[in-house]
Write a structure and sequence with these properties.
The complex is a heterodimer.
Chain A (H helix, E strand, L loop, with lengths): L3 H23 L12 H21 L3 H5 L1 H18 L1 E2 L5 E3 L7 H19 L7 H19 L4 H17 L4 H21 L2 H11 L10 H13 L10 H4 L11 H34 L3 H25 L17 H29 L1
Antiparallel strand pairs in A: 1-2
Helix pairs in contact in A: 1-2, 1-12, 1-14, 2-14, 4-5, 4-6, 5-6, 5-7, 5-13, 5-14, 6-7, 7-13, 10-12, 12-13, 12-14, 13-14
Chain B lengths: L3 H35 L1 H12 E6 L6 E2 L5 E14 L5 H12 L8 E4 L2 E5 L4 H9 L7 E11 L6 H4 L2 E3 L2 H7 L9 E3 L2 H5 L1 H4 L4 E7 L5 E8 L5 E5 L3 H11 L4 E6 L6 E7 L5 H4 L4 H9 L8 H4 L9 H10 L8 E4 L2 E4 L2 E4 L7 E4 H7 L2 H22 L21 H8 L5 H8 L9 H12 L3 E3 L4 E6 L4 E4 L4 E4 L4 H17 L13 E7 L7 E8 L6 E7 L8 H16 L3
Parallel strand pairs in B: 2-11
Antiparallel strand pairs in B: 1-9, 2-3, 3-5, 3-6, 4-5, 7-8, 9-10, 11-19, 12-13, 12-24, 14-17, 15-16, 18-21, 19-20, 22-23, 23-24
The complex binds zinc ion.
């Protein structure tokens, strides 16, 4: 029987390969061949770096990362602050980048917060389910979240917020407290309407009824659904989706790469991707269950939730059942920072799986 | 407090998260199924609409030929410069077009269809070549051929053929269902308008695939526009020309036709206009100029202008009087130059009087006194009855659009409208074709046809046959008898003899000496706005008429003047070139 770790690596590899295939299919420069300028070329390059990180964390102990989690936390807050001050803006006017648009600190903030939360909660395990810890952790999460929100990057801010809520959920907080929290968020969210920027409001309205203004604010959602719909059951074939090739679909290599993929490979292709995603998630959470160490359990399950939430929001928005927020599809969307972060995380998970298998075998003997 | 229970709870939470993930997976899968499989077809159609742009190409109109096959109106290709928006920088392209053509150009920038701007219309061939040679420097610029109507010697038959123009918003509202589009051409008058349904062809289209920026990726398919039918008219182009030239600088009307079939051979209206101007699109100023000209060149005078018929109307009075036997052909009259009725004097046009004249001489000399007398003998009711028999004041029919009907006054009309009684003076005025009576030249032409054909009136028509694309005849207009006016044959004989005498010894002396038996009548229509209009109409050979003609010269003075001179030229041309 195949070992769990190998299966996990295979699933991750499949996701990355499909990602490269998808990026290639929407690459406007692909006719110029494989080069540092082409999108798929750079995606392959990032994959190489990412897999190097994967191996690094698979074959080295990463306990030191937990021990210095405060450092990662402070570094990420500092870099997010730097983005606001020195950062470079993209087409939409949002400041998200450092070092001539090569590094996106908000992606690394996800990982830093992951370590910080798992280490912080497990060292304070005696206070789990205490209001005081909830308030303190809320404060620590709120700082980077706010910085990201100011970029503005609503999607990533949402991801960080969900990460915190996931930590509380996994941290065993009592149902009533979580319910109260959720109720509070639900009750206050209408107020956020007033602090939202105009384009953000339009996105919400477009999500509620995209066909109202299919050429304006609803354009993304409509074009994405058209792409997925016209893919049909088997798809229109690689490189031949009209929506994608004629560039009706916006943000084809990042936010709407799922739609581009489905137009080419149809319902079947979409299901393959979704299945790979759920397998990945399943293996990660199963690893979290088996691991003995509380810190590592928090880490693995939070990584799983981070992954699941991003997939859910991204695919959901491609399918028109979640609002448009700029969250990339892990492993598949074009973009170095996201890929590195997720491959590094996957490498750590692989090590955890390998180690628990090792321990189980020893116990057996 | 950390304890076993807490640890167990965390385990449960991880398991719960797992099931949340599975639930999410199911939701996303179902939605994917819904979009891609259940509604796939619908979305595919959306995608199609996204990327395929249909550009409709103007229809071709059928040609119009004369009876001998001379082409009078046809579509010729013109060229326009179209710019596909989004395919490159507009300003840059316009700058380059200026460079390539080597002159400064005011671009029209009319948006013809979504994403298509017309930069220039009516390019010269020279410019087309220049553009094609530099096509690489002009991305998104396209030379497109489009049809424009061309008329042979536009002014000669403008009022008959009519002209075409862009369909107006009002027409579009009425005809939208029939497939007319914003940019379509439509017949605006004359044959072009009346036979629009035959002349209008099928539109073509060009389906192009565009990307999200509206750039043309490829042309998917193309159907060139076609015409369906051509028309062959009864018109004789050379004769039409001769008539037009015979009028010279004068304004007026010449009609020539065949009384035995109803065919119209010539249909001249002057002043005229050049319908070719409309094909290239008139500027507002040119259009206003045309409308404001006092002489109104757009008016098709033979069918749309109203005149008093003057003495030409005496033909009807003579027929009625003979038929009603209020006079015999042998009766003689005395004309002292006036007729005293009541306490007023009604004058003859010849102030010195005609002296003693027979009935036929009265026709030849067009003696008013005699016709006053006959009119009084007949009375207005009987005159009206005969006028109706000959079709006056009733729908005059001709296959051209905008045909008007004259006005025939009756005592009832005067009572009801003017609130006045009908006086014998009105009857006398009516008897010499003056007063309230108004006719179109076509109505007078039909009266002449009736006499020439001894009561049988055929529907006048300008269409002879309809040809399909390959020139096969699909429809032929057969002579159709409109009415038969049953009068005694002596009545016809007498009036025709009188009309022959008009030429041989009467007011039509300008046409004397032609090598054909000619029956005709002069007329002078008093005109409150200036010099009298001069009429002359008749037929030849008078024993077996083959040609009926009618000439009207506006402000031409009395009937023995201008109109007879024009008619003489026309008749001479016919005798020489068509035989009779
Ligand atoms: Zn007299």
């Amino acid at each position: 029987m195949m070992r769990r770790e190998h299966f996990f690596v295979l699933v991750t590899l499949c996701l990355c390969v499909l990602g490269v295939i998808a990026v290639y299919s929407v690459d406007p420069l692909r006719d110029e061949g494989f080069g540092p300028k082409s999108f798929f070329g750079r995606q392959i390059l990032w994959n190489a770096v990412g897999w190097a990180l994967f191996l690094l964390f698979r074959f080295s102990d990463f306990q030191w990362l937990f021990r210095r989690s405060w450092l990662w936390y402070l570094l990420s807050v500092l870099s997010l602050g730097a983005v606001l001050v020195f950062g470079e803006s993209d087409e939409t006017g949002a400041r998200r980048w450092l070092f001539s648009r090569s590094v996106q600190p908000s992606e690394f903030a996800k990982l830093a917060l992951l370590f910080f939360l798992s280490s912080y909660l497990s060292t304070n395990r005696d206070e789990l389910d205490f209001w005081s810890l909830l308030v303190k952790s809320a404060f620590f999460v709120a700082v980077p979240t706010l910085l990201v929100f100011l970029q503005p990057d609503l999607g990533t801010a949402l991801v960080l917020g969900v990460l915190w809520f996931g930590a509380l959920f996994l941290g065993g907080w009592h149902r009533r407290k979580l319910g109260l929290l959720l109720g509070l968020v639900a009750g206050l969210s209408p107020l956020s309407w007033f602090i939202m920027k105009d384009y953000q409001r339009k996105r919400i309205l477009a999500f509620l009824d995209p066909w109202q203004d299919p050429l304006g604010s609803g354009y993304n959602v409509v074009q994405s659904q058209i792409a997925i719909g016209s893919g049909g059951f088997l798809g229109q074939g690689w490189l031949s989706g009209k929506q994608t090739q004629l560039r009706f679909l916006p943000a084809r290599y990042t936010d709407f790469i799922f739609a581009a993929f489905c137009e080419q490979f149809g319902f079947v292709g979409g299901m393959v991707l979704l299945t790979l995603f759920i397998l990945f998630f399943w293996i990660v959470l199963e690893a979290a269950q088996r691991v003995g160490n509380l810190e590592e359990r928090f880490f693995a399950s939070l990584f799983g939730i981070l992954f699941l939430f991003q997939v859910g929001i991204n695919v959901g928005m491609n399918l028109g059942i979640a609002p448009v927020t700029g969250i990339p599809l892990p492993f598949v969307s074009y973009g170095g920072s996201s890929l590195l972060v997720h491959l590094a995380g996957a490498g750590m998970i692989a090590r955890l799986i390998w180690r628990t298998e090792q321990e189980e075998r020893e116990r057996w003997i | 407090m950390w304890n076993e229970r807490m640890e167990e709870r965390i385990r449960q939470r991880v398991a719960a998260a797992l099931w949340i993930g599975v639930a999410l997976f199911v939701v996303l899968s179902v939605r994917l199924w819904y979009l891609a499989v259940l509604w796939g077809e619908w979305f595919r159609e959306r995608s199609e609409r996204n990327r395929v742009r249909v550009v409709f190409l103007e229809t071709l109109r059928g040609n119009i030929y004369d009876r001998r096959g001379v082409c009078l109106a046809e579509d010729v290709p013109r060229f326009r410069l179209v710019f596909l928006v989004g395919s490159s920088d507009e300003e840059l392209v316009m700058k380059r077009v200026r460079e390539v053509l080597g002159r400064d150009i005011a671009f029209s920038l009319r948006e013809r269809a979504p994403g298509e701007l017309v930069l220039l219309e009516d390019l010269s061939l020279e410019d087309v070549v220049k553009i094609e040679e530099n096509s690489e420097r002009l991305p998104g610029v396209l030379v497109e051929a489009y049809p424009a109507r061309k008329y042979r010697d536009g002014e000669v038959a403008a009022s008959l053929l009519g002209y075409v123009g862009k369909v107006s918003p009002e027409e579009l509202k009425a005809l939208g269902k029939m497939g007319y589009r914003n940019e379509d051409r439509i017949g605006k008058s004359g044959v072009e308008s009346f036979y629009e349904s035959f002349l209008r062809g099928e539109e073509g289209y060009r389906r192009v695939e565009v990307d999200a920026l509206g750039r043309v990726v490829q042309v998917l398919d193309f159907r060139s526009p076609r015409f369906r039918y051509s028309l062959q008219l009864t018109l004789d182009w050379e004769l039409q020309r001769a008539c037009y030239e015979a009028l010279g600088r004068r304004n007026g009307v010449v009609l020539v036709g065949d009384p035995a079939t109803g065919e119209i051979l010539a249909f001249v209206s002057k002043p005229s206009f050049d319908p070719n101007l409309f094909s290239r699109g008139l500027s507002l100023k040119e259009w206003l100029d045309l409308l404001e000209q006092k002489s109104n060149p757009l008016l098709a005078r033979p069918t749309q202008a109203l005149y008093p018929p003057g003495s030409l109307f005496k033909i009807l009075i003579a027929l009625a009087a003979l038929e009603e036997q209020v006079v015999t052909s042998r009766e003689s009259f005395f004309c002292p130059g006036y007729l005293e009725y009541g306490n007023r004097k009604y004058f003859c046009w010849k102030r010195g009087g005609h002296g003693r004249v027979t009935f036929e001489e009265a026709i030849a000399e067009s003696c008013n006194v005699v016709f006053y007398t006959l009119g009084l003998r007949l009375g207005p009711e009987r005159i009206a009855r005969y006028a109706r028999m000959f079709g006056f004041g009733q729908d005059a029919h001709l296959d051209l659009s905008g045909v008007k009907t004259g006005f025939f006054p009756t005592p009832e009309w005067k009572r009801e409208t003017l609130k006045e009684a009908w006086y014998p003076g009105d009857t006398m005025n009516l008897s010499i074709g003056q007063g309230y009576l108004l006719v179109t030249p076509l109505e007078m032409y039909l009266l002449l046809c009736a006499v020439a054909n001894r009561g049988k009136v055929y529907d006048p028509h300008v269409l002879w046959r309809v040809l399909d694309e390959d020139g096969r005849v699909v429809k032929e207009v057969k002579p159709s008898l409109r009415r038969t006016i049953a009068l005694r044959s002596q009545t016809w004989d007498t009036v025709i003899r009188g009309m022959e005498k008009v030429v041989t010894q009467g007011t039509g002396f300008n046409c004397r000496g032609l090598p054909v038996r000619l029956a005709a009548k002069t007329g002078t229509a008093q005109n409150p706005h200036g010099k009298e209009h001069s009429w002359f109409g008749g037929f030849f050979p008078s024993d077996r008429p083959k040609f009926v003609f009618l000439v009207l010269v506006e402000h031409g003075g009395d009937g023995s003047g201008e109109a007879t001179l024009v008619a003489r030229k026309v008749i001479e041309w016919i005798l020489q070139n068509r035989g009779a």
